[in-house]
Amino acid sequence: MAAPPSNREGRPKLEDVDCLDWTCDGDRLVVAHRNCNMALWNVNRCMQERQWTGDTWTWADPHPIDSHVIAAVTFNGLVKVLDTRAPTGRDGLLFSAEFSKNPGPTEPKGLEKLLNVTWHPDGRFLAVYGRAGTIQILDPRMVVSSSASGREGHQPVGSFAFSQQINAAANTEVYSILWDNYSEGGPHSLWAATTGAPSKILLYDDDLLLKGSQCPPDAVKPSEVLIGHQSTTFTLSRSGDGRFMASGGGDSLVDIWSVADLTCIRTFASSTHVPIQSVSLSHDGSLVAYTSLPSTGGNDVIDRNLVIAGTMTGVEYVDVAEKFTGKNSRIPHPVNHLAWSPKEHALAYSMTASSGGSTEPSPNSLVNVMKIDADNKTLQDCPIDF
């Protein structure tokens, strides 16, 4: 990976990253910033290919099969599916739905402020959830005309094959949703991580979810209920080979789950004793990376902010600050989001713009890609200069 230009003169102030993820071909990163920008970055060429502005993006999920399609949600209740190949000046809108506070008779209800979106593994359906505590399954195959999509403030015209509300659990808030990618027979399941003490991970099978109007909302019950963590389960990740799911919780633990038999096969503990903020499993399931929330404990917290370990061995291959440099100079700021490449051992990570407990100046780049060789030892960093 070539290093991009480092000159940042005249550029706007860096804003924290809300999410990042790879396109399915492993060539590009989708990064959403708190300054209402979402960018598509070509990692191999170290160049930004396009940018979407004007919306407060809370989450983005690239299509699992088509590397040119991205689903994204906004805090004010919009779901958008975008084609990244659209000509300059057009946002490439393929599908749009609005979950407004006062929906009309044909508009989906119950989400209002959207927080997360995830594609079904076959790329046909989307699951979205929001503050109202419901999850809805959408069919985004209705295409919006190019003339309509180019208009500012265009009202959504997408029609749904179904719009299914799922009551996650009484008095429970969902923090993260993700479909598993297990392919050894049987349906896929949508995993929903919740609040609680202990928190639960609820699994909903496709057999019910994808029936749409044939299955009333009150008939949608979890097929399995896993005890996730001693407090809220904040984040979920799946391995590209479908074998594992990982969960990170407020109890400072990362659990590795076998999707085949739904058992927790290994647990990692954060030494900072603060909640896990982000967790990611590699494409082959052999490595897990996780990061915890920053705290007021000083530089020692930052030194242990990012850990990479063997999923099955439990061995920490890379404790970035301590084992590579012996100090916090490599990653001087807290890491808040992680994503492994779907093709290789390359980890994208974002740092917070503020210095936190570090005495180092603000980073020149908030997003970097760390490449690990076959021995899990040699590290190469490619800063991504937004």
TrEMBL record:
A Pfam cross-reference name: WD40
UniProt keyword annotations, A-Z: Repeat, WD repeat
Residue spans of the WD repeats: 226-267
One of the record's GO cellular component terms: THO complex part of transcription export complex
Swiss-Prot/TrEMBL GO biological process terms: mRNA export from nucleus
Alphabetized InterPro entries for the sequence: Tex1/THOC3 (IPR040132), WD40/YVTN_repeat-like_dom_sf (IPR015943), WD40_repeat_dom_sf (IPR036322), WD40_rpt (IPR001680)
Keyword field contains Cell inner membrane: no
Family matches, as PANTHER family: THO COMPLEX SUBUNIT 3, THO COMPLEX SUBUNIT 3 THO3
Assigned protein family: Belongs to the THOC3 family.
Protein name: THO complex subunit 3
UniProt organism field: Perkinsus olseni
